[in-house]
Amino acid sequence: MLHVPEGFKVEVFASGLPDARSMRLGDKGTLFVGSRVRDKVYAVVPGPNGNVVKVIASGLHRPNGLAFHDGALYVAELSKIWRYDNIEANLDSPPKPVLVYEDLPTDEPHGWKFIAIGPDNKLYVPVGAPGNIVMPSSRHAQIRRMDLDGKNVELVATGVRNSVGFDWNPVTKDFYFSNNGRDWMSEDLPNDTLHVVKAGTTTAPNFGYPYCHQGNFTDPEFGWGHSCDEFAKPAGLMGPHVATLGMRFYTGDMFPSSYKNAIFLARHGSWDRTKKLGGDVVVVKLKDDGTIASYEPFLTGFLQNNAYVGRPVDVQPMPDGSLLVSDDWNGAIWRITYKEP
Amino acid sequence: MRLLVGLSALILLDSIGVPVCAQPATEQLSICLSCHGENGTSQAEHVPSLGAQKSDYVVAQLLMFREKQRIAPPMNDMAANLSDDDLQSLAEAISKLPAPETSAPIEAKAAEEARALIARYRCGSCHGADLAGQGQIPRVAGQREDYLTAALEGYKSNARPGYEPAMNEVSRDIKDEHIPVLARYLAQYRSEQSTAGQVPKP
């Protein structure tokens, strides 16, 4: 059974999307959904008998990342980013995609991507570390941004092990991203983390990987000779091995006012802990200065008797103020609404 | 908190199917076993044994072959016309075959070295303390040595992307010279006769 706070309701929005991962909403209301272990990108459109799922692209390699801008859908494979122009008018016969960017490593570990287009009209692309705890090359463990044609690439953040979710604070325009911490050091450490890069930052902050974890302790292997003081600190600790993935700021009007401008964050759930943790959506409420005020469960119940019955991947606020949650375990999209009790 | 939606009925399989193959499951299985070996033990070089393989793992592999997400001739052609139901019934039948016959036992020192590596690389964390697999994680105990070597090398070089990329991540840390040691040990390792402590639990 799923649980949400008093007054909220959760229902199935769409099903039959195996491995549903990152979501993006088109201007005309199409919900696009990527996948990671499958090769497909889906579109969910309203039909006479409920929502209809269409496959709009196949044969892609881990097409996890999606962005939408000016009528075009951007799709990030493991090492290539494509653009499908005027996609919503052509869902049944999508155009041949235009290659936007491919100067990316081809490593499988942490190679799948979350992408987004920022308020600066730049395309943000993470490159994960190519393993659990490895000395990354100058091309790994970072977040890049670039013009929408893939040119003028610059670094936004370094020392980032693997970010699979980010968004911009609607008030401050600061860049917030989630990060997955290393494995096999302890069942309870390090935490996955939430980070901030302030708007207008010109030199990419280094968040410490592989030397320093969660801002306050050094790696047993790589950390010697370093202090965590050398690196930028995380904004929040989100739980050990919980796999913090997709996140969005909520700017809608349906939910109570305390949720305004809060972050909804999907925690996919741990895979290596003895006692599983995560597999939920949490809400992170911020103070005026953008630091974390509170962090609480929002959608829970996917973890039962130490086994998953669902695993949230991404969240998507809708124009009516409802919130969608993708679930790659069930191949489904959930919809959460609120009505004052 | 309010209880809202029951989930148990919501296990969704891909419905993007192709026409159901006309052959009954037993005939389909006998086609598989003509290469993969009768009773689950392969006698053919680089062809994996299927005996007692986890059904979820088999479904995932057959799906990847059918959808050409994993290119491994002749399996893409073999799986091309299988329906979702075929994948499921074949996987179930394969999982019920007896565990593969293991290769000849290796000398104690080599076995000890391999057990230390299995602990170091935490193989048992996913494949089970007895290395017989669980869920979509495959049985590796008793698998053919040449197949295991090729699989580990393929994962390590990214030539074989996993369904989940977990093995691509893990095998990155496995030293090249350790791959044959692991493969040789696993090929002769019999889960069913394991005693407590034989494989160090991570």
From TrEMBL, chain B:
InterPro entries: Cyt_c-like_dom, Cyt_c-like_dom_sf, Cytochrome_c4-like, Cytochrome_c_Oxidase_Subunit
Signal peptide stretch: 1-22
UniProt-listed Gene3D superfamilies: Cytochrome c-like domain
Annotated localization: Periplasm
Highest taxon of the lineage: Bacteria
Main location: periplasm
Domain Cytochrome c: 109-190
Key words of the record: Electron transport, Heme, Iron, Metal-binding, Periplasm, Signal, Transport
A family per Pfam: Cytochrom_C
Protein name as it appears in the record: Cytochrome c-552
Record organism: Methylobacterium jeotgali
The gene coding this protein: cyc1
